[in-house]
Design the sequence.
């Protein structure tokens, strides 16, 4: 324990080396009903050996910042239950999770408002910030649907019920990565059930191979189907309103928007996903988050989405100078696409510049390759 040069208090530093294996998962320590689920009017029962903390990382309650998890090699599995509602590898409740993976085989599985790898949970508070760097290895990250319908990233930042999703910073510079989230963004910012989605800064390069999927989920109590989020980028905005403007001449509510995103793709990565960029919004009046997208290389199957209307003060820019975007179909059953238009690029109120690269065999209702509204 202590603090780093920036004064950020951290709970621990963990460094994994060698060829051994480590499994960290729920144990039969204490069984009961989640206090959090009682607040939400639900009843989630199970084992609470690690409530709101992490399987590998920080504690809950203000001392959960984990800024020094480094995995160089070995075989690691970290899993938590819905009852525990915590991150598998990263930050404790509401706190930061800084994780670097240089090699090895890493599997993280959660049913949580936190992440599989990255930031801690956020329920009444903003989702914990995640900062994840992957340089090699085989990484599998799964975040299944939780009882509270709070979407969170598989790799990135935690989600929240009544606050904003956390900001996610993710660099993938090598290795094979599979990330899957129910309802939220698979890689990037945390989402919110009621407020705005978290922002994201994403860099993908080297010879990495990335598959990112967001899937839908069914509410067991109501039968409602909750839609998926983006594959990579900003978090999903919730069903509520961010704030209300009231004065003698103006009274209106501002819907919650998706999180903004800065996405840079270079080198020779292979990327298979759905929508990349600004987060979607589940609110009918909400807008796709702003995004700045730069593509200079790679073999990419994705739809890049961005909308300046979410915040006119932020730029909405797509720049492509190399690489290939191909085989992106907005009606794909494998990957979710947040817009029916623009198979490769969907943009509102922005700047599109293409000086190199290719767009091939992309399909949409309007604008097979590019749709600018």
Sequence:
């Amino acid at each position: 324990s202590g603090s780093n040069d920036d004064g950020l208090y951290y709970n621990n530093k963990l460094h994994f080396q060698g060829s051994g294996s480590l499994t960290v998962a729920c144990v039969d320590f204490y069984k009961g009903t989640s206090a959090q689920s009682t607040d939400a009017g639900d009843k989630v029962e199970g084992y609470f050996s690690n409530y709101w903390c992490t399987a590998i990382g920080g504690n809950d309650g203000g001392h959960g910042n984990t800024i020094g998890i480094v995995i160089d090699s070995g075989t690691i599995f970290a899993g938590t239950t819905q009852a525990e509602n915590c991150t598998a590898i990263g930050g404790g409740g509401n706190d930061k999770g800084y994780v670097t993976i240089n090699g090895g085989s890493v599997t993280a599985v959660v049913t949580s408002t936190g992440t599989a790898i990255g930031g801690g949970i956020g329920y009444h508070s903003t989702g914990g910030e995640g900062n994840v760097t992957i340089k090699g290895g085989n990484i599998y990250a799964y975040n299944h649907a939780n009882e509270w319908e709070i979407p969170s990233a598989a790799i990135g930042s935690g989600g929240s019920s009544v606050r904003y999703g956390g900001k996610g910073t993710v660099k993938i510079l090598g290795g094979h990565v599979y990330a899957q989230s129910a309802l939220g963004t698979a890689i990037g910012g945390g989402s919110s059930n009621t407020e705005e989605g978290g922002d994201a800064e994403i860099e993908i390069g080297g010879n990495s191979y990335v598959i990112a999927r967001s899937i839908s989920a069914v509410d067991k109590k109501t039968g409602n189907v909750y839609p998926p989020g983006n594959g990579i980028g900003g978090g999903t905005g919730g069903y509520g309103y961010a704030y209300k403007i009231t004065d003698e001449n103006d009274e209106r509510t501002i819907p919650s928007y998706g999180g903004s995103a800065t996405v840079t793709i270079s080198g020779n990565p292979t990327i298979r996903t759905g929508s990349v960029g600004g987060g979607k919004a589940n609110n009918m009046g909400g807008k796709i988050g702003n995004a700045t997208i730069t593509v200079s290389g790679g073999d990419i199957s994705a739809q890049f989405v961005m909308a300046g209307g979410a915040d006119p003060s932020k730029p909405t820019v797509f720049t492509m100078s190399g690489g290939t975007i191909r085989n992106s179909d907005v009606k794909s059953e494998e990957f979710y696409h947040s817009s029916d238009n623009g198979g490769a690029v969907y943009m509102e109120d922005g700047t599109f510049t293409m000086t190199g690269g290719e767009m091939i065999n992309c399909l949409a209702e309007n604008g097979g390759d590019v749709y600018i509204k």
Remarks:
- The radius of gyration is 19 Å.
- The chain has a mean pLDDT of 85.
- The CA atoms of residues 8 and 65 lie 8 Å apart.
- The first helix runs from residue 35 to 39.
